[in-house]
Amino acid sequence: METIIGIDLGTTNSLCSVFQDGKPVLIPNPHGSMLTPSVVAILDDGRVVVGQAARELQVTRPEAAVACFKRWMGTDHKVSLQGKSFTPVELSSFVLKALKEDAEAFLKKPIEAAVITVPAYFNDHQRKATKQAGEMAGLKVRRIINEPTAAALTYGFHDRNAEKMILVVDLGGGTFDVTLMEIFEGTLEIVSTAGESMLGGEDFTDRIVATVLKKEGLALEVAEVRSPLRVSRLRQECELAKRGLATESTVRIRLPDDHGTYDESRAVKLDRAAFAKIVEPLMERIKRPITRAMQDGQREAKEIDEVILVGGATRMSVMQECVQQIFGKQGLIKYNPDEVVALGAAVQAALILDHADVREMVMTDVCPFTLGISIAKEFGTRIESGYFNPIIHRNTTIPVSREEVVCTLIDNQPEIIVKVYQGEARKVVDNVFLGELQVKDIPRQPAGAEIMIRFTYDLNGLLEVEAYVPSSNRKFSTVLTNHAATLSKFELEQAIRNLQRLKFYPRDDLENQRLLRYAERMVGEVNRFQREQLEYAVDRFLNAMVDSERESFASARQDLLITLEQLGISYDGQSEDEKP
Ligand code: ADP
Ligand code: MG
């Protein structure tokens, strides 16, 4: 039987899952961890590493690694690493390729298909870009589903026979999504969804970093250029502080100098109240999509049976207080918030494969935003263009197909350019331009000739636009003129060929790469007496990695681990995220 894996391609972490033995399960990476940091690095020898090892490098060598590239999906942004330029689609494909290999090692067979999750608020470009990243990684993307929908699927799968109204609040590293869902008799109905694609836990960290730097008389943007090492170290400290505040009332932030070195005497304190004050503007933005999802779903706070918290950043106390304040009840975390999206992707995969265990389940989703075209409006004798005419309204159940009639404006008008937009604003300039469709050879006739425009929004959240000219009986159908960020078939093939030339760091050896990078970072953290001892062990390990004489390698590795232990540095093969 065909296997479809589920993938949560996150801003910060990515996960991979599969439906097995009647339930969704997660697939570990070579380090035994379920979370693979969405970080890509290029080693000095040009090889690509993904995940934990790349994240270690990011701290000590910010110029060799990149994270948070999901934020640039669907844009023309390029990232330069070790002199090579990469698109966000390529970087995402590296992460997907790593996850695919993990799944193959876990399931002991080749994997060719996946369900990939995206933030509900991802627009058409971002969805297409994600799909292409999958294809570049050698995966057929069977379905793109919204992250909050996937999270809801996990809860719905385990709670199939309940009857309740659930609000899923998902604050990840870089995106925020809210989804209202109703469960009854095995049917999971997404009622409405809202969110912001540029708001996430990383912004909370950034606010701390900016505040600390400001106290030192530095602006974040300036510091990033002038001393990137200092900022990358400080960001790491602030990230720990933010997490610490989830369980503690006060945390300490050590202040690195320009070389990224800490001096134990230089530190500042941050307590929950001060943190809440710093992030107040962000919390205001958090409230808006919650209100919108409730309004669109025509529900009131008291009608919500459960508020489910998803995404690592909902662990922040400010988020829990916010939920308490609005709904008068505690947010629920029944399943690990880092994992529910990936698990839901595996449930979706099971639905596609019509697995016996999900046969009685039905799921319906909605279109998260309004889709429409640009039209001209008449004001007396004046005609003004640039107005947005919705065709599919937000929160319409998908798949959906809607038709709208437009008319020619002048006599003998030979063509119409249908400009397609996504968004909620009255004027198209304030919405996202998705592309255009040229309708040509309209027969000569007086103004007011009718043309039917049909929008079809499929289960993947991808839009198809069609125009029909009754007077000529001709049909014009998409594909929307390509946006720069999405590639044509030819360009995609070209890109795949280019990627095949890249060398990836061998999967089996990733754990050693990570240990090396971790130990290298620790060299800068220990005192100068310990430093010599640690450096010696690191050098020996590095030499052994290059020589790779089996026995000497094993003993060098062992030596390094022992040295770390002697110095009181814990290295447990687990990622930072999984430490309680
Ligand atoms: P994504 O799906 O975007 O990759 P995740 O759901 O993995 O994101 O969440 C990552 C975010 O959660 C990061 O911004 C991280 O700092 C934050 N986070 C993780 N654990 C905690 C915690 N204990 N307290 C506060 N924030 C946390
Ligand atoms: Mg996520």
Second-tier CATH architecture of the largest domain: 2-Layer Sandwich
User: What's the overall geometry?
Assistant: globular
Mean model confidence by pLDDT: 90
- Which structural category do the helix and sheet elements fall into? alpha+beta
CATH topology of the largest domain: Nucleotidyltransferase, domain 5
What is the gyration radius calculated from CA atoms? 26 Å
CATH superfamily (homologous) name of the largest domain? ATPase, nucleotide binding domain
- The count of β-strands is 27
CA distance, first residue to last residue: 38 Å
Count of folded domains: 3
Enumerate the distinct ligands: adenosine-5'-diphosphate, magnesium ion
How much strand content do the residues show? 25-35%
Could you characterize what this model shows?
The protein has 580 residues and is of the alpha+beta class. It folds into three domains: 280 residues, Nucleotidyltransferase, domain 5 (2-Layer Sandwich), CATH 3.30.420; 134 residues, Substrate Binding Domain Of DNAk, Chain A, domain 1 (Sandwich), CATH 2.60.34.10; 71 residues, no CATH class. It is built from 15 helices and 27 strands. Strands 1, 2, 3, 4, 10 and 11 form a six-stranded mixed β-sheet that branches. A six-stranded mixed β-sheet has the order 17-12-13-14-18-21. The two termini are 38 Å apart. The C terminus is likely disordered. The site of magnesium ion (MG) has 6 residues, from loops.
